[in-house]
Amino acid sequence: MVVRTLKIMAVCFLCDATQGNQQGIIRGLGKLNHASFALLVAFYFISLPLGCYFAFYRDLGLKGLWTGQIIGVAVLAAFYSYLICYNFDWEQIAEESIERH
To answer: Is residue 17 part of a domain?
Structure first.
């Protein structure tokens, strides 16, 4: 059981490291409102309900809790990737940075 759980945790930590780096980029850009709303949705409306569903209704126990966490963190990382690559106007952000300095 421990070995299986550690494998699942490794996948979760890989996704979590990715979203953590992306969240740092978003914070550096000063766009915290996007990041905080996405974090709230991913953890409280995706991870927690799915983790409880898998753990208690599908009888997966600890593996189910971690599976819900993986799904929520992966959704968060995908949303952050979308924000960074497609949503932000990088030219405007660069101009604002030049004006500040």
So the answer is: yes
